[in-house]
Structure formats: C-alpha cells, structure tokens
Amino acid sequence: MQKSDLIYEGKCKKIFKVEGASDKVWMEFKDNLTAYNNKKKSSFTGKGRLNRDTSSLLFQYLSVSNHWVKDQGETGMITQSLSMIPLEVVVRNRLAGSTAKKFQKKDGTPLSSPLFELYYKDESLGDPFISSEQAVVLGWSSIEEIDQIKTMALLVNEEFSALCSKVNLELIDFKLEFGKTSKGELLLGDEISADSCRIWTTKGKRLDKDRFRLDLGNVKEGYQEIYEKLKSAI
Ligand code: TMP
After folding, report:
1. Residue 19 CA, ligand 1 centroid: distance in Å
2. Can you state the angle between helices 47-61 and 143-166, rounded to 10 degrees?
3. Which pLDDT does position 152 carry in this prediction?
4. How high does pLDDT run on average in the chain?
5. What digits encode the pLDDT tens for the residues 94-133?
C-alpha cells in the first residue's frame, strides 16, 4: 500500500488517502496526548504505536463490524474509508469523569445497568451531551441508525468488559465513533485505546488517560499495562 495525500490531521491521528484504493484510508497514530478539549497537551514516545496496537487488537477481537483492514508499519493502520456520523457514543459501567461531575457523584459510583450516552462531536461547542431526539431532529442520525449504534455499542461493552475481567481489569467507560461506507454499511470506526476508555485494575488503580488528565504520573506505563494485559487475555 502507498500513502498519498493527507486528508485530515486531528489531535492524535493523521488520515491519508491510499494510492489506488479510494475505499480505504491510512491512519497514522501520533505520540501527542491531549485532554480537556486540547487545553492540556503533552506527548510520549511510543504512544502512537501503543494506541495503534491496542485499537488493532480490539478491532480484530470484537465481533462488531468495524473499519480495521490491516496494520501498516509501526504506527499505521489501513481502514475502510467511512463517512463519519458526528456523534461520540459513550457507554459507562460506573460513573466517572463528566457524568460523575455533573451529578456530583464520586468517581467509581456503580450503575444498575450500562449507561448509553450521545455527545455531538463539535469541538467549538465542547462536544455537548445530546438526546437521541436532538441527534435525529437536528439531522445527525436517524432513529433506526441510533438503535443500531446502541446495539453495537452495548455488544462492544459486553465483549470488552469480559476481556478486561479475564486479566483483573475493569472497564469503567469508553467512547466510540461510527461511520458509513460508500455502500451505506454502518461500521465502528476511529480507535479504541487508553485515550478513549477508562480502565482500572480491580484494586482501583487508573491505567488510562486519566493518569495524564489528573497528573497521576506513569502515563506510558499505564497505556503499556492496558495493551499487554489485553493482549495476554486474547
Ligand atoms: P467523559 O467522562 O469525559 O464524558 O468521557 C467518557 C469516556 O469517553 C472516557 O473514557 C473518555 C472518552 N472520551 C473520549 O475518548 N474523547 C472525548 O472527547 C471525550 C469527551 C471523552
């Protein structure tokens, strides 16, 4: 595969066209680390590779249809080209982060069942929480598509949580993004990594991006532990 023009550069990834394959793109994972809508920034060597490897492992393991085609080099991934739905889909097994803060609950508060949430992906608005009715009436998705997304996200949650528990980890929450191929097939896209999940050890130690957000130190070690433990569970 030959990389061609840069299509898009985000905070943590670059997306390139693939020479002679208009239905594929080449994603390069960068070493950048950002939080709080880019207000806090850092990086560490090897982060791009760890996030590519973690995402690749999960995309190949999960049964939900997704965009992964193959890994490319140290930090690249060839994926299906998708037209992205502008929603951030979050599933929570315990309250932590923004929803815990909103309701003044302690991080780690248990929930009676997994909580499915939607956020509108628009950084200039701070990715606001939205209802599924808002997503439909404002034209970002359809009821049928949101039902399908919810089924897929909850299945990811079941499989990913079970994988974590095999190696004494607990999946607290995660964010997914979805898109459609030119033929209209709905696929799980973007990445699933320590950047987009909260994963704690069963003793309550945070291993994910909260180590960076909350200045807990040993960020790289946390990302590495997530990847290595998940790999050993498969
Ligand atoms: P939150 O508690 O900040 O709403 O985040 C919920 C989960 O979604 C958490 O695992 C981090 C992830 N997430 C992203 O991957 N990207 C984002 O832009 C946001 C806001 C959250």
Report:
1. 33
2. 110
3. 98
4. 98
5. 999 999 999 999 999 999 999 999 999 999 999 999 999 9
Question: Which atom of ligand 1 is nearest to 197's Cα?
Answer: 10
Pick from 102, 175, 208 the residue to mutate for probing ligand 1's pocket: most ligand atoms within 8 Å of its CB: 175
pLDDT tens readout for residues 135-159? 999 999 999 999 999 999 999 999 9
Where does 103-218 have alpha helices with state H? 132-137, 143-166, 210-213
CA of 107 to the centre of ligand 1 (A): 14
Cα 37 → chain centroid: 15
Whether 46 lines ligand 1, by a CB cut-off of 6 Å, is no
Determine whether 5 is exposed, middle or buried from the number of CB atoms within 10 Å of its CB (0-12, 13-18, 19+).
exposed
* pLDDT 10s digits, 212-223: 999 999 999 999
Tell which one of 39, 40, 54, 90 to mutate to probe ligand 1, the residue whose CB is within 8 A of the most ligand atoms. Answer: 90
So what's the pLDDT on residue 37? 87
